[in-house]
Amino acid sequence: MPELPEVETVRRTLTKLVKGKKVEQVDVTWPKIIKKPDDIEAFDMLLHGQEIQHIGRRGKFLTFQLNDYVLVSHLRMEGKYEMGDGSAPDKHTHVRFFFSDGTELRYKDVRKFGTMHLFPKGEEMSTQPLSQLGPEPFEDPTFTPDYLKETFQATSRDVKTVLLDQRAVAGLGNIYVDEALFKAGIRPDTKAALLSNSKIAALHEKVEETISNAVLKGGSSVRSYVNGNGEMGLFQLELHVYGRQGEGCRVCGSEIIKTVVAGRGTHYCSSCQPAIVALKGK
């Protein structure tokens, strides 16, 4: 958290707030966030005079397209951006971008897990962290049922583990994987290679549908997520299984079960998502 819908919402908000602004100075108070270059003075120097021409996104990463560089930012668990309001920064503000028009963008991170990489323009996609990302289920024509089928048939892992693997599908996280699997009627611990063509097609459809709906609603504010304007997402009001353990399924009334899959808390309905134990069929 944040996952693809939350990061996409932040991207859209930041585009309205900072596109076209020119960086005059950068103040870093927690150097470990800056991964490239490894010198915060060089980070400040390289960004000086750079204009934010476009803000993009790849999976869960934001990409600030500048004149000569691309700043790749990963929010991880608790990272967030907000515009400065003239007040003194709090203890969770670790990077401040000062613009030539007198405004300021702040990066705040309670856990300090977020990262920033600064690449010369054109090099950002050929090296980590972006180089190993798979296709994503939002406005990406390479994310197809055939791609999922090929990916599932090449592994012995369960379907949730595969969907959480950013090298297989970029942008998905715990919330939206649980929700998409519920809508497709697939138990999260099902071996991916056992899924039939029809189940794979249903899963592909529900993953794309779930992500698109979440983007439309501004993401899910189940913890501390807010967009660049401090606004909460609304998709959490539509969750069917995630975070609803012990409650009744909204479709059949059966109890929502919580277990652990891929080391993550996992939610499903045992009635709507039956176990698949037979060999796959067509």
UniProtKB/TrEMBL annotation:
Which protein are we looking at? Formamidopyrimidine-DNA glycosylase
Q: Which Gene3D superfamilies match?
A: 1.10.8.50, MutM-like, N-terminal (3.20.190.10)
Quaternary structure per UniProt? Monomer.
A Pfam family reported for this protein in Swiss-Prot or TrEMBL? Fapy_DNA_glyco
User: Taxonomic classification, please?
Assistant: Bacteria, Bacillati, Bacillota, Bacilli, Bacillales
Which residues does UniProt mark as catalytic? 2 (schiff-base intermediate with dna), 3 (proton donor), 60 (proton donor), 264 (proton donor)
The record's catalysed reaction(s) read: Hydrolysis of DNA containing ring-opened 7-methylguanine residues, releasing 2,6-diamino-4-hydroxy-5-(N-methyl)formamidopyrimidine; 2'-deoxyribonucleotide-(2'-deoxyribose 5'-phosphate)-2'-deoxyribonucleotide-DNA = a 3'-end 2'-deoxyribonucleotide-(2,3-dehydro-2,3-deoxyribose 5'-phosphate)-DNA + a 5'-end 5'-phospho-2'-deoxyribonucleoside-DNA + H(+)
User: What UniProt keywords apply to this chain's record, in alphabetical order?
Assistant: DNA damage, DNA repair, DNA-binding, Glycosidase, Hydrolase, Lyase, Metal-binding, Multifunctional enzyme, Zinc, Zinc-finger
- Biological role stated in the UniProt entry: Involved in base excision repair of DNA damaged by oxidation or by mutagenic agents. Acts as DNA glycosylase that recognizes and removes damaged bases. Has a preference for oxidized purines, such as 7,8-dihydro-8-oxoguanine (8-oxoG). Has AP (apurinic/apyrimidinic) lyase activity and introduces nicks in the DNA strand. Cleaves the DNA backbone by beta-delta elimination to generate a single-strand break at the site of the removed base with both 3'- and 5'-phosphates.
Report residues binding DNA: 92, 111
Mind listing the GO molecular function terms for this protein?
Answer: 8-oxo-7,8-dihydroguanine DNA N-glycosylase activity; class I DNA-(apurinic or apyrimidinic site) endonuclease activity; damaged DNA binding; double-stranded DNA binding; zinc ion binding
> Which GO BP terms apply?
base-excision repair
Which CDD domains does this chain map to?
A: EcFpg-like_N (cd08966)
Q: Which InterPro entries match?
A: DNA_glyclase_Znf_dom_DNA_BS, FPG_cat, FPG_Glyclase, FPG_N, H2TH_FPG, Ribosomal_uS13-like_H2TH, Znf_DNA_glyclase/AP_lyase, Znf_FPG/IleRS
Report the cofactors.
Zn(2+)
Which species is this record about? Alteribacillus bidgolensis
Q: Give the family, as the similarity comment puts it.
A: Belongs to the FPG family.
FPG-type domain mapped to chain residues: 240-274
Q: Where in the numbering of this chain does the Formamidopyrimidine-DNA glycosylase catalytic domain appear?
A: 2-114
**EC number(s) on record?**
3.2.2.23, 4.2.99.18
Q: How is the cofactor bound?
A: Binds 1 zinc ion per subunit.
